[in-house]
Amino acid sequence: MRVKSSYLFAGGLLLVVALFFIVGSLFGGDKKKAEAKPAPASALPSVQVVLTPESQHAYDVVIRGRTESARTVVVKSESAGTVASTPSTEGSYVQKGAVLCRLNVDARQASLDQARANLRSRQLSQQASVELAKKGFRSQTQVLQDQANLDNASALVRQAEIGVEQMNIRAPFSGVFDKREAEVGTYLAPGQACGAMIELNPLLVVGDLPESEAGKLRVGAPASAVLLSGQSLSGRVRYVSRDADPQTRTYHVEVAVANPSMSVRSGLSATVKISAGAGPAHQVPVSSLVLDAAGRQGVRYVLPTNQVAFAPVTVIEEDPGGVWVSGLAGPVRIITVGQSYVAEGQKVRVATAR
C-alpha cells in the first residue's frame, strides 16, 4: 500500500519540531546555568582609594567684612560765636585736647577780667574781716558773710573761665580730624558742628555672620583679616550681636585690630577669618567631592565589604593639601578615581591610589 505524500510531509514537519525542542532543552539549560553564576571579579568596576585618617583640625569662620573706625564723633560747639581760626588741618592726626576750631572771645574775656577783679576785692574784704574779728571789731556773722561773698566771687570767675574756654572746640580723643564743617568766619550756634573726629587705632573689622555660624564664636577669639591689597591684620573679637538683623537674619560681629601707624583706612574690604575652636576633620582631595542625587555635596568611599557609600560633608577650609571637611568618622577609604561612575551600594574592585 502506498503512503500518500501529504502524510509524509506532515510526519517530516513533526520530526523537525521534535528535534528543535530536544536541542533547545539540551543547550538552554546550560545557558541558564551560565547566567546564574556570579560575575567574575574582573567584571566589577574598578576604583582607586586613599585611606584618610581622622584628625583634630582648627575650625575657622570666614566672612566678608570691611574696616571701620572704632569711634566717629561729630564735634559741636557748646557756645555761640564766629569761627576765628582753625588750627587743626583737615585729615591730620591730632592729640586729645587739640583745638579744632576757635571762636571769637568777644565780651567773654571782659567778663572774665571783671570777675577776677571782683574776686580780688572779696579776698581783701575777707582778710580784713578776719583781722578785725581777732581784735574784737567785727562779729563772727560779718566774717561768715564776707567768706560767702568770696566764695560767690570764685564761682563767678570759674563760670567766666568756662565761657572763655568754650570758645575753643577741642578734640575729645586722639585720632584723625577727618572732616571740617566750619571755616573761618562761619557763625556757629550751640550744637552746630565744627568737624568730625574718627579713631583708627584700634581699628575695627566688621561683618555679618549667618545663623549657622553665630553660635560658634565668642568674644576674645583670635581673628585675622586680609585686605584686598594683601595686607594682613590680626586682632580679637570684641563684639558679637545677640539679636539678628530682621532683614538678612545675620549677626553683626566686630574684630578689633591694632593700627598704630593708622595706615589702614576705614571702609576697606577684607576677608575675615575667626577661630571657632577645633574638632574632628578629614583632609580629602578637592577632586573627590561629588554631588548625590539630592544635590548634597559629599564624598564617596568604600566600606569594608568593598561596597560604595556616600557621606555628605561640610567644607571647613581649603589648603594646598586639599580640603578639610567634617561629617566623616574614623579612618575612611575615600574614592579618588572613579567616584563619578559608581553608585551607593555597588560592589567595586579597590586599588590604592598612587
Automatic annotation (TrEMBL):
Domain CusB-like beta-barrel span(s) in chain numbering: 207-276
One function term, GO molecular function aspect: efflux transmembrane transporter activity
CC terms in the record's Gene Ontology section: efflux pump complex
Membrane-crossing residue ranges in chain numbering: none
SUPFAM superfamilies: HlyD-like secretion proteins
InterPro entries: Beta-barrel_RND_2, RND_pump_MFP
Family: Belongs to the membrane fusion protein (MFP) (TC 8.A.1) family.
Protein name: Efflux RND transporter periplasmic adaptor subunit
Species: Phenylobacterium glaciei
